[in-house]
Amino acid sequence: MRNLFAFIYRFRAFLLFVLLEVLCVFLIVRYNTYQGAAFFNSATKYAGQVLEFQSGVTDYFRLASINNTLARENALLREELLDFRKQSITDSTQSLDTTYYASADTLKQYPYLLHAGRVINNSVRRTNNYLTLSIGAADGVKPGMGVIASNGTVGRIKTVSEKYATVTSLLHSQLLISAKIKKSNTFGTIKWTGGNYRLANLEYIPLHVKPAKGDTIVTSGFNTVFPEGIMVGTISSVEKEMDKSFYTIKVKLAVDFAQLSYVYVVENPYKAERDTLEQNAGILPDEQ
């Protein structure tokens, strides 16, 4: 305290000058319209810049929460899109003649539920690649569910804990996905054989079909994992080998697995019923 008083006494003249300057500025701003307006405009400008900077810092640390919210909203929108797509596929109106007419077959379509999740671990360079998601059983995720991204198929849920889930990536030597050429509805199997993580093989396309470079490949819907019509990729090359009964087709995958951040886990409410029926009938799913 003694040092404080010593400091004030030592610089008393300067401190008095500063105090009088502040008082003068206050009186000028308070009792002069022009100077007052100029001061408050300047003060507002600088205060706004400070608040903008503060808001930017705050928003930066809230990005994770914002991204999670947007991902959940996107999941709801994609559910509606899948429902609409399924309805348009099962609606037989356009295929009927004038003799018989059914307004819609929409009762045959059923909804898929999507659960948005953040990718917290990922690999693309191994023979068998996996992902880890930040959602688990508490969010409704179960083993065997399909996983898609905003631009295409990703893989299938392998294991689940309360808050996390692992995914068998499409970049896995043992994962098979039933797919089809969109323009001809010819179905085959997508399989990744290693190497380039942007390319996979489309197998079992017979030679009487005429696939072409650039053709779109989508999921076939012949299973309970992926809805029909989910993007897989586009044909990048087609080879016809003399000693084989099928084409050798390379597909450029729609999803860039090295840049995955958010995905959607696809829940089919009728999966268990259909799987049980097919298993009882002796139909063993060799691909999903």
Structural class: alpha+beta
Discrete helix count: 5
User: What is the radius of gyration computed over CA atoms, rounded to a whole number of angstroms?
Assistant: 31 Å
Which bin fits the share of residues in helices? 25-40%
Tell me the CATH architecture of the largest domain: Beta Barrel
Average pLDDT works out at: 81
- Under CATH, the topology of the largest domain can be stated as Thrombin, subunit H
Taking the alpha carbons of the first and last residues, their distance comes to: 79 Å
Strand percentage lies at: 25-35%
Order of helices and strands: HHHHEEEEEEEEEEEEH
Report the biggest beta sheet as strand number plus sense, adding barrel if it closes: 6 strands, antiparallel, barrel
What spatial form do the alpha-carbon principal axes imply? elongated
CATH class (first level) name of the largest domain: Mainly Beta
Total domains: 2
Query: Which homologous superfamily in CATH is the superfamily of the largest domain?
Result: Rod shape-determining protein MreC, domain 1
How many individual β-strands?
A: 12
Low-confidence segments, ≥5 residues, pLDDT <50?
96-108
Strand order of the largest sheet: 1-2-5-4-3-12
